[in-house]
Amino acid sequence: MGELRKRRLEFLGIYHSHPHWLDINEPSPKDIALACSSEAIYFIVTPRPYAITPIRAFSIREGRVLELEIRVLR
Ligand SMILES: [Zn+2]
C-alpha cells in the first residue's frame, strides 16, 4: 500500500488466474474462504485463448459473492 501511495496509484483490487480450470473463472470455495478484504475487487483471469469471459470481477464479502460488471472504456 505504501508503494501505491508513493506512486500515486489507486488500489483497485486483487487478481489471480485459474489456469487449470476450463473457462471456470469464478471464485472457488478456497478463494471465498481466503478473501481478506471486503473493499477489494477480486479479478479472476482465464488465460486460455478464445475464453468467453477471459476476465471476471467479483466482490466477496462475508462469504457472499457478487459478480461485478466490467466495462471497457475507449
Ligand atoms: Zn481462485
Topology:
Elements: H1 2-6, E1 13-17, H2 29-34, E2 41-45, E3 55-61, E4 64-68
Parallel strand pairs: 1-2
Antiparallel strand pairs: 2-3, 3-4
The chain binds zinc ion.
The site of zinc ion has 6 residues, from loops.
Principal-axes geometry comes out as globular
Radius of gyration: 13 Å
Q: What is the share of helical residues?
A: 10-25%
DSSP summary, beta strand count? 4
Query: How is the main sheet built?
Result: 4 strands, mixed
Q: Give a list of the ligands.
A: zinc ion
The proportion of residues in beta strands is 25-35%
Which structural class best describes the helix and strand composition?
A: alpha+beta
Number of helices: 2
The largest beta-sheet arranges its strands as 1-2-3-4
Task: Write a brief structural summary.
15% of the residues lie in helices and 30% in strands. It has helices at 2-6, 29-34; strands at residues 13-17, 41-45, 55-61, 64-68.
Task: Explain the overall architecture.
With 74 residues, the protein is of the alpha+beta class. It has two helices and four strands. It has helices at 2-6, 29-34, and strands at 13-17, 41-45, 55-61, 64-68. Strands 1-2-3-4 form a four-stranded mixed beta sheet, with no helix packed on it. The structure holds zinc ion. Zinc ion (ZN) binds at residues 16, 18, 27-28, 31, 44.
